[in-house]
Amino acid sequence: MGRLRPYLRLPWRSATRLRADLDEELRFYFDMRTRELVEQGMSDADASREAEREFGDVEYTKRYCLAEDAMSRREERRTDVIAELRQDIAHSWRTFRRSPGFAAVSLITLALGIGANTAIFSVVNGLLLRDLPFGDPDRLVRVWGAHKDSGADRSQLSAGDFIDLRTRQHSLSSLGAFAWGGGTYIGTGDPVRLSGARVDANVFTALGVRPYLGRTFALGEDSAGVDPTIVLGFGVWRRVFGSDSTIVGKAINISGRSRTVIGVLPPQFFFPTMAEAEIFTPLDLTPLLRDVNRIRKFHNLGAIGRLRPGATIEQARSELSGIMAQLERDFPQSNSNMGVNTAAMRDAVVGDTRPALLVLLGASLLVLLIACANVAGMLLSRAVSRRQELAVRAALGAGRARLVRQMMTESVVLALCGGAIGLALALWGTRALVATAADRLPAAGQVTVDATVLLTALAVTIACGVVFGLVPALAASRGIQLGLKDAGRGSSGGVARHRMRTMLVTGQLALAVMLLVGAGLLVRSLDRLQRRDLGYSIESTLTFELVLAGDRYDKPGAEDQFFDAVYARLQALPGVVAVGGSGNIPMRGGAMASLAIDGRPEPEGKLPEVGYQPVSDNLFKAMAVPLKRGRAFGPQDHKDAPPVVILSESLVKAFWPNGDPIGARVRLGPNPNDPWMTVVGVVGDVNMGVADNSRPTAYVSARQDHWGGAAIVVRTSTDPMSLLPAVRREVRAIDATIPVAEAHSMKQVQSMELTDRRLPMQLMASFALLALVLAAVGVYGVMAYSVAARTREIGVRVALGAQPKTVFGMVVRQGMGAAAAGLTVGLLGAAALGKVLTSLLYGVKPTDVFTFVGVAGVLLAVVLAACLVPARRALRVDPLEALRSE
Amino acid sequence: MTKPAIDLLQGTVDVLILRTLAWEPMHGYGVSRFIRQRTEGVLTIESAALYQALHRLERKKWIRAEWGLSENNRRAKYYSLTAEGRRQLREEAATWRSYAEAVFKVLEPV
Questions:
Q1: Cα B19 to Cα A826: distance, rounded to the nearest angstrom
Q2: A68:B49 CB<8 A
Q3: Confidence band (pLDDT; 50, 70, 90) for A224?
Q4: How far is residue A512 from each of residues A362, A365, A850, measured CA to CA in Å?
Q5: Whole-angstrom distance, CA of residue A199 vs CA of residue A280
Q6: Residue A510: its pLDDT value, please?
Q7: Which of A118, A747, B70, B92 could form a disulfide with A457 if both were Cys (CB 3.0 to 4.6 A apart)?
Q8: What is the reported pLDDT for B10?
Q9: Contact at CB, B51 and A57, closer than 8 angstroms
Q10: How many folded domains does chain B comprise?
Q11: What value does the mean pLDDT take over residues A709-718?
């Protein structure tokens, strides 16, 4: 029987096997036939020859039969695999039905791990991997001005420099310039403020955009004297113009000027590095090029280029830098320290989100690893209780490979079910993420769960199933022979398995520690950001934008009149403490200007650059910026009065060591013919950007430098947003064509500005929390299993007089041992990996002691809690019961 | 071995093998002997063709092979009919019968 058994089912024979079988079969035939012929009276030799002869072509027959056999074998193998797979899946299903608790915990664990991963990966895919929605996007470059002295390498170019770059370079097939634009659409309903860009004809050519309707700008359409035109973004076309398919050729009123719509851009289009832009008007560089004071000193242009076929970005970069270096030599007054920065468009668009995304992707992978470790741990414990089952199956003829395969099928089925739930979570999570970050991420529209994401999720899921299934499967199949004998009760083989589980838990804890440290550092950064001294108060403050539009504001005095009316009417509203306005909303940057001081020798090369803000009389009061010296602006500082300026404290500190600049005279801006301005006051420093600290700033009176609009700040004694309807009413009463745009409380503004930082922090924190919970479940599992496995030992100890305290301590000590090991590894790992977080941190070092100590405390507390239940169970062990059960 | 004859032969050999195995599982030698005895030597199938047919039919899953012990205690490969093979046999036999009847109808008057 022993010899025959392998042949009973002819399982998947090898080629050699097939050949041997065939030879044996034919030999049998010849022997039998020869014998028959001998019986009929032939001699042995004749009979054998005759048998050969009458058979026919032996060699051909052999080849023929072998080919047929090989085909059958392939077929057999295929149907066998499918049949076994179906068997395994059915068996897995039964197994899960038998232990629903285990199945539920594993499924939730996996779903969370895979879901988190898929959601983050779909963002990474959309932003970092998928093509940008432009023709041949990999050939696009973004060109910036670079200030070598300040290190600002993503700033604007001057018109003169841009034209020189464009005409002298050879590595780009087109190079287009754009500047901030936008305007107010005045239609039949309420006026609508629209962000936009002014672009020259080369921009759309370089981008390779095919319009949805009509066309984009033609060469020459950007010069003066041509009929004003406009190209609409898809969003604004749908939102504001009701998807009017006949809009091309119609004239619309933008900021009081009639413009003919010539085209609508496709839905997926976004303007790179200025995603908020929705309307596009032609940019005419001629006025800037004619103005000697602004041609190279007024930096307001961005540039987009397309590489010539065959040219590389390195070539373009070195060529543009060379041109810029020549300009630096030719025009030292304007160009010293001015460089150029050329980057691939994808890098430009993705910008700062890349490190955050990669960190989050890494974090979500760690969560997935922890989830896998958890499930692997659970499978390991289960393998103990299933030893008997496996042993029975082995005894019934299942080979080790077959058993491993069956257990792997179980884990892959488990992973696939978890993955399916995870995918549902990811769909939801991706949508939530995009909704939260839509206005901060230029390419947010690109983020969808597409085929790449689905395939990756599938691959990750199957990999998970294999990873967490293999170890327990191998471990379980190894000790099969023992299985039948001890019926799965004894501890032989359990030691190794338990060590493996402890290692898994230690690894989980280490990973969780790393995530906790990461989250802790980000939380601390955000906290620092929110609590840093801004130099002004954001409590109870409303802010909104008013941009003037229409010919009537070109008349002298009209702008002052409008804003004076606004300030007066708003000031009169109940609940308003103070009203002011400035060129820019705080926290959203501002302009720069060069600074010259009367009576001091001009420095070699370029003048120092300082922040520049036109402000209304009461702005400092409205923002609660302290006046340190001198006076604020007032109605006396009108257009025809002597020009005056107020300086920030840090500017004073830099140029007036004695701290008193009152009465000194300065000149702001590049034009040497501008009059000197007298310093009348000093105010506290204000933080203008999100992360950058206050910069030296000069404030001028809005009455003396008209900007055609202002960011209004209203300090209130009530909820700022509750004042908004009244504010709108008052503004409408003055001029119904001026919309109240971007209305928010200052707290909201801060919160929006911090989105880029809050979002990674929140995600990281959720990942860390998830990791902690999963690790805690892992610790609980291993401790519960350990106590269960040691019931007899504990019973003996208690019987021999061990104190409850000792037993309790024994269990807790074991858990804390794993915690200490995990903590050590995790903290070391966090210290080593902390560098990747640097760009996401503010005011916190990656090795922040507070965070590390805090994480250690949290982890130990959680592990202790996870040990308590098993430890108390150990206390309740009844020695008699424990010994009798053996 | 000449190929052109095979096509005609194959169908005949196949159906004879199926019919033979319908009696009982047999090894290849047994099948060849059985057909020889049964047709009283009128039909002799070349053994090469027989073995090719056996392996072909096995691949088609009309018959299945198992190693067993022969009458004289030697290891031999036994072929038996599968359910699918039995169905095939019924169909082929019916075809053969109607074919033979048709041929006879033409030949009868002689």
A1: 75
A2: no
A3: low
A4: 13, 12, 17
A5: 7
A6: 93
A7: A118
A8: 63
A9: no
A10: 1
A11: 91
Task: Identify the pLDDT of residue A323.
Answer: 95
- Can you tell me whether residue A271 is helix, strand or coil? coil
Q: Is B28 on the interface with A (CB under 8 A)?
A: yes
Distance CA A706, CA A696 (A): 22
Give domain status of residue B1, yes or no.
no
Q: What are B94's two structure tokens?
A: 């019916």
Per residue in A24-79, pLDDT (tens digit) is 999 999 999 999 999 989 999 999 999 988 888 899 999 999 999 888 888 888 88
Q: Any idea what the CATH number is for the domain that residue B21 is in?
A: 1.10.10.10
B67 and A4 within 8 Å at the Cβ level: the answer is yes
Domain assignment present for residue B32? The answer is yes
Q: How far apart are CA A732 and CA A521, in angstroms?
A: 47
**CB–CB of A740/A190 below 8 Å?**
no
For residues A535 and A626, what is the distance between their CA atoms, to the nearest angstrom?
8
A224 conformational bin, left if phi > 0, alpha if psi -120 to 50, beta if neither:
beta
Length of chain B as a residue count: 110
Buried b (16+ CB within 10 A) or exposed e, B4-19: eeeeeeeeebbbbbbb
Q: Specify if B4 maps to a domain.
A: no
A16: closest CA of chain B, how far (Å): 17
Q: Which residues of A touch B48 (CB under 8 A)?
A: 55-58, 60-61
* CB contact (8 A) between residue A65 and residue B32: no
CB spacing of B51 vs A28 below 8 angstroms: no
Read off the pLDDT of residues A813-851 as tens digits, 9 standing for 90 and up. 888 888 899 999 999 999 988 888 888 888 888 889 999
- The confidence score (pLDDT) of residue A457 equals 87
- pLDDT score, position A1: 36
User: And the tokens for A449?
Assistant: 């769960």
Beta carbons of A184 and A737 less than 8 angstroms apart: yes
Which among B27, B46, B59 is the nearest to A56, CB-wise?
A: B46
Residue B12 has pLDDT above 70, yes or no: yes
Using the beta-carbon criterion (under 8 Å), do B58 and A69 form an inter-chain contact?
Answer: yes
When scoring B63, B67, B71, B84 by the number of chain A Cβ atoms within 10 A, the one with the most, hence best to mutate, is: B67
Return mean pLDDT, chain A. Answer: 85
Which residues neighbour A410 within 8 Å (Cβ) at sequence distance 6 or greater? A88, A91, A92, A95, A469
User: In the structure encoding, which two tokens stand for residue A382, read together?
Assistant: 């289960």
The residue of chain B with its CA nearest to that of A18 is B55
Q: Which candidate, A486, A519, A474, A576, places its Cα nearest to that of A766?
A: A519
Q: How many angstroms separate the most distant Cα atoms in chain B?
A: 53
Residue A213: predicted pLDDT: 93
Q: Compare CB distances from B59 to A4, A54, A68 and report the shortest one's residue.
A: A68
Per-residue pLDDT band at B9 (split at 50, 70, 90): low
Amino acid identity of A490?
A: G
Number of residues in chain A = 886
Q: Name residues whose C-beta falls within 8 Å of residue A512's C-beta, 6 or more positions apart in sequence.
A: A370, A768, A771, A772, A774, A775, A822, A826, A859
Which residue out of A33, A37, A68 would a mutagenesis test of the B interface target, given it has the greatest number of B Cβ atoms within 10 Å?
A: A68
Dihedral sign, Cα of residue A754, residue A760, residue A761, residue A762: positive
- Select the more confidently predicted residue: A391 or A827: A827
- Residue with more model confidence, A781 or A863: A863
The nearest CA of chain B is from the CA of A29 a distance in Å of 5
The domain in which residue B102 lies consists of 10-107
Distance of alpha carbon A151 from alpha carbon A603, whole angstroms: 19
pLDDT confidence of residue A5: 38
Give the lowest-confidence range in A53-67, A334-348, A427-441, A776-790.
A427-441
The answer to whether the Cβ–Cβ distance between B75 and A24 falls below 8 Å is yes
Is B76's Cβ below 8 Å from some Cβ in A?
Answer: yes
Tokens of A192: 């609508």
